[in-house]
């Protein structure tokens, strides 16, 4: 019984790794979007970018990304928290940074800063990747208080109160801008052929 249990765990574990980063179809190199999201807006942004790429990109979270060697190109996205990349993206780059360096085509961040003022976050992200992507974009996200951890709720409530702003939910995501970025990535890929 012990051997069967161990074998089942191994099979299930391998299956999860396979599903975490779906491989491109046999004989076809593809694109994968790897993202790190704390409360979901970066994940949604990644999905919309993939939609803009007409379904030509797999989408996987950085925490679940397995072997990405079968992909020709990689798009990375991270939420920004306390002026840093999401911890899962930082860990992903530690593990797979060498692979990313040569395959990175685009990156994006989701943050509270206005996109036209998010340049330092994009530069920081590119430095962590040790690469210069062809495309980089900043997007706004959302804050849904019901999703916040107790610690984040308390910290953000104090921040907003101190800044004189109301502490309330907001959603500044923009599907149209994400779709457009996906189309732009797809166009660049076409130019590279």
User: Fraction of residues in helices?
Assistant: 40-55%
Q: Indicate the radius of gyration in whole angstroms.
A: 18 Å
Count of helical stretches:
6
Mean pLDDT: 86
Which structural class fits the helix and strand makeup? alpha/beta
Fold and architecture overview:
- The radius of gyration is 18 Å and the shape is globular.
- It has a single domain, classed as Rossmann fold (3-Layer(aba) Sandwich), CATH 3.40.50.360.
- It is built from 6 helices and 8 strands, in the order αβαβββαβαββαβα.
- The strands form 2 sheets. Strands 1, 2, 3, 4, 5 and 6 form a 6-stranded mixed β-sheet that branches.
- The protein is an alpha/beta fold.
- It starts with a helix and ends with a helix.
- Helix 4 links the parallel strand 5 (104-111) and strand 6.
- Helix 2 (41-52) packs across helix 6.
């Amino acid at each position: 019984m012990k051997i069967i249990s161990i074998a089942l765990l191994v099979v299930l574990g391998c299956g999860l790794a396979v599903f975490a980063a779906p491989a491109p179809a046999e004989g076809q190199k593809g694109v994968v979007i790897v993202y790190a999201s704390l409360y979901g807006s970066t994940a949604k942004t990644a999905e919309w970018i993939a939609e803009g790429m007409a379904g030509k990109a797999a989408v996987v979270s950085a925490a679940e990304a397995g072997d990405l060697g079968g992909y020709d190109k990689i798009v990375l996205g991270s939420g920004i928290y306390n002026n840093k990349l999401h911890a899962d993206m930082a860990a992903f780059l530690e593990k797979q940074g060498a692979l990313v360096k040569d395959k990175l085509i685009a990156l994006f961040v989701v943050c509270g800063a206005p996109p036209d003022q998010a340049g330092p976050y994009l530069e920081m992200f590119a430095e962590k990747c040790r690469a210069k992507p062809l495309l980089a974009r900043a997007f706004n996200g959302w804050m849904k208080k019901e999703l916040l951890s107790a610690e984040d709720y308390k910290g953000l409530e104090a921040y907003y109160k101190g800044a004189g702003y109301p502490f309330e939910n907001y959603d500044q995501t923009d599907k149209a801008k994400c779709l457009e970025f996906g189309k732009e990535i797809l166009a660049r890929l076409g130019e590279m052929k």
